[in-house]
Write a structure and sequence with these properties.
- The complex is a heterodimer of chains A (479) and B (228).
- Chain A has 479 residues and is an alpha/beta fold.
- In chain A, 16% of the residues lie in helices and 31% in strands.
- In chain A, the strands form five sheets. In chain A, strands 1, 2, 3, 5, 7 and 11 form a six-stranded mixed β-sheet that branches. A six-stranded mixed β-sheet of chain A has the order 12-10-14-19-16-17. In chain A, strands 13-21-20-15-18 form a five-stranded mixed β-sheet.
- Chain B is built from five helices and six strands.
- In chain B, the strands form three sheets. A two-stranded antiparallel ribbon of chain B has the order 1-4. In chain B, strands 2-3 form a two-stranded antiparallel sheet.
- Chain B starts with a strand and ends in a 5-residue tail after the last strand.
- The chains are: A alpha/beta (479), B alpha+beta (228).
- At the A-B interface, helix 3 of A face helix 4 and helix 5 of B.
């Protein structure tokens, strides 16, 4: 029966089956049309140029949606100084964004501008029917064709031209996205953007100035000169970067027209809270990089928690840095140092005993004062990771090299000596428990609170006589 | 007119590499111009802009002409466009000529400026792709400005598309990717996977335009020339 489940099964099939199979049973099972809600009213779709997206659909019922899309062949910039004759749906690459609702009856008009050289058509991946509408929309220059379809499946779909030579029509920019919103709508977000990747093949190498013709050989070898978001190197940067604010939920409708490349779509410095892989219905969570097939799409959602420039890339990274697959999402707002501090220090690094030699003054995060119990617990860990390598696990040190901390007479009567050693480092001759040491102890990479904790731990273990060090004591002595 | 040598033409779309033998024929050096066509409609008023039957020419017929006898002077020596297949066929008949078959036209068009078969010449093919990639725009240049081919014919490529006698037997349907089921009565196989030469993009474009029109259509970048 697999044959009957193929895409494109329609009313004719359903009726045909009923004639073939005497005990057809419930005809509704076989007829998708019977499951459809009733169409109410009609409207003309408002289409948007990238990176904009039409507003969410608030209708609770399907309607008849009339879509007018015009094919325009025109010269545009591939990058500054480089032009190319693009073939477009609506005058932009990618083409205009179409937004309809599950169950809508779409009356589609394809217009081929009279100044165009070639016939064109459209295959919408949202269409259930032969060729996705291609055979019904084959349109000569100066003509307009029309067909209708019901948007049966919700999802985010690529549309593209499918006129021979198909590869060349797609390679020249003939693709875009159509969103079929699910009946219940999509979760509310603050901003939606439309980003579509494409690969381009030019006679000249990347950046070679002038009007560049399409290079068929490179296209067949699948060696693009340009891999770009929204039809141009730098389409999403500078004045035309995507802009949003901290705290906002962002949804990216990401498409990939190809013709050849598969995109490893990634936003540097963000994790996608939700990804509807390939534009489907099941959200996946906490995704770093998502594959967007050629002729496919993905919806990614994330919240901007901190300000800054977030870079969109195809993580096949040479495409990003050498072929143009870079975009910028600028997030405005107040930094949150708890979530992301920014650089806190940059200083000389000289490896020595596996200890990081120096770090900034003061902690990144001001913590509450710790109780003695907390200090003892945290101090144990700090000792293990910062002190044990030299002073040993039993704190007995190593004769002639590292002085002992166990039962030490060096700081027994003056814990501030220990604070000084940890905070500032210590070098030169000292005598501990009657033995002479002449080495160097580097300043430790610890905050005031951490220093207080580890010293409290040392004072209360290894046969020392107890006591407590506070962060304030450390801060005073650090000056 | 110039003499085009006969030869073997292998259709772009053919399932069993069926070849067509083309006999020698003569071809107009230039496409028919607006001035040429004006002389024709004056002689055959049935084909005037205002009187041509809609059955034989759609409402775009001679759209770029201001009236039955007027068009912008600068288009005088440019190819006539916005003419239907019926009008083109009649014009040639009245001249004692005819429209070329697709096989004849393609055979003549295979010639590069230096050889009668430029189909393996990658530079020639790249040039073709380049001129065919550019939009036509709304003013057609004059005839005779593109490179002259091996036979001495001008403008087969890059100026306007040209009607052929059997244009609609070309079998690409609007769906260029499957082995489509339309028009197979005229030819076997319509899918690109049935093509003998999958990288002949210029030929795909010509077949696409031929498949996208009907005989009564008048298209802004579609003209014609005659053969005998």
């Amino acid at each position: 029966m697999e044959f009957f489940t193929q895409r494109g099964k329609g009313l004719i099939w359903a009726l045909g089956l009923c004639l073939l199979i005497a005990s057809c049973g419930d005809q509704n099972e076989a007829d998708p049309a019977s499951k459809l809600e009733e169409i109410q009213g009609q409207e003309t779709a408002v289409l948007t140029d990238p990176p904009n997206v039409p507003p969410p659909i608030t209708r609770k019922h399907p309607t008849k949606v009339i879509v007018h899309l015009e094919v325009v062949e025109k010269e545009m910039q591939m990058m500054d100084g480089v032009s190319y004759v693009f073939w477009t749906f609506g005058g932009t690459v990618p083409g205009k964004f179409i937004r309809v609702r599950e169950g809508d009856f779409v009356e589609f008009h394809l217009k081929n501008h009279p100044d165009n050289k070639l016939p064109h058509n459209i295959d919408l991946h949202a269409v259930t029917g032969p060729g996705g509408g291609a055979a019904s929309t084959f349109t000569a220059p100066g003509h307009e064709t029309q067909f209708s379809f019901t948007a049966l499946n919700p999802g985010l779909y690529i549309y593209h031209c499918a006129t021979a030579p198909v590869g060349m029509h797609i390679a020249n920019g003939m693709y875009g996205l159509i969103l079929v919103e699910p009946k219940e709508g999509l979760p509310k977000v603050d901003r939606e953007f439309y980003v579509c990747q494409g690969d381009f093949y030019t006679k000249g190498a990347y950046g070679e100035a002038g009007l560049q013709p399409f290079d068929m050989e490179k296209a067949m070898r699948e060696e693009p000169d340009y891999v770009v978001f929204n039809g141009k190197v730098g389409a999403l940067s500078g004045n035309t970067a995507l802009k949003a604010k901290v705290g906002e939920k962002i949804r990216l409708f990401v498409g990939n027209g190809g013709p050849n490349m598969v995109s490893s779509f990634h936003v540097i410095g963000e994790i996608f809270d939700n990804v509807f892989r390939e534009g489907g219905s099941v959200p996946d969570h906490n995704i770093q990089t998502t594959l967007v097939p050629a002729g496919g799409a993905a919806m990614t959602e994330f919240t901007l928690d901190v300000p800054g420039d977030f870079i969109l890339v195809d993580h096949s990274i040479f495409r990003a840095f050498n072929k143009g697959a870079l975009g910028v999402l600028m997030a405005e707002g107040t930094p949150n140092k708890n979530l992301y501090s920014g650089q806190q220090d940059d200083r000389i690094y000289q490896p020595e005993g596996g200890v990081i030699q120096s770090m900034p003054e003061g902690p990144a995060v001001e913590a509450k004062p710790m109780t003695k119990e907390e200090k003892l617990a945290q101090g144990k860990n700090i000792y293990a990771s910062n002190c044990q390598a030299c002073h040993q696990a039993d704190a007995k040190g190593i004769e002639k090299a590292f002085p002992p901390l166990a039962g030490s007479d060096y700081f027994a009567n003056d814990p501030s000596k220990a604070i000084m050693a940890v905070s500032h480092g210590l070098s030169g001759k000292i005598t501990v428990n009657g033995k002479e040491y002449d080495g160097v102890m580097p300043k430790q990479n610890l905050s005031d609170a951490q220093t207080a904790a580890v010293l409290t731990y040392v004072l209360n273990n290894f046969g020392n006589k107890g006591g407590e060090v506070n962060a304030e004591d450390v801060a005073k002595l650090k000056k | 007119m110039v003499e085009i040598q006969g030869g073997i033409y292998t259709p772009l779309y053919s399932l069993d590499s069926q070849k067509i033998t083309v006999k020698p024929f003569s071809m107009d050096v230039y496409p028919v111009t607006n001035a040429d066509f004006l002389a024709f409609v004056k002689k055959y008023p049935d084909w005037k802009k205002s009187t041509a039957k809609r059955l034989y020419a759609d409402s775009n017929y001679l759209r770029h002409w201001a009236s039955d006898t007027e068009f912008p002077q600068y288009l005088s020596n440019s190819p006539v466009v916005n003419v239907s297949w019926f009008a083109a066929k009649r014009y040639c008949e009245c001249e004692g000529k005819r429209l070329a078959t697709t096989a004849e036209w393609e055979l003549a068009a295979k010639a590069s400026p230096t050889s009668k078969d430029g189909s393996r010449d990658t530079a020639f093919r790249q040039w073709l792709i380049q001129v065919l990639s550019k939009p036509s725009g709304n003013a057609t240049p004059a005839v005779g400005l593109t490179p002259r081919n091996y036979y001495g014919v001008y403008d087969l490529h890059g100026l306007v598309w040209e009607w052929t006698y059997d244009f609609n037997s070309a079998l690409t349907t609007g769906e260029s990717r499957g082995n489509s089921t339309l028009d197979n009565s005229l030819f076997c196989g319509g899918g690109s996977f049935a093509s003998k030469d999958v990288s002949n993009y210029p030929a795909f474009m010509r077949f696409a335009i031929r498949s996208s029109v009907k005989a009564r259509y008048c298209v802004p970048n579609l003209g014609f020339r005659c053969v005998r």
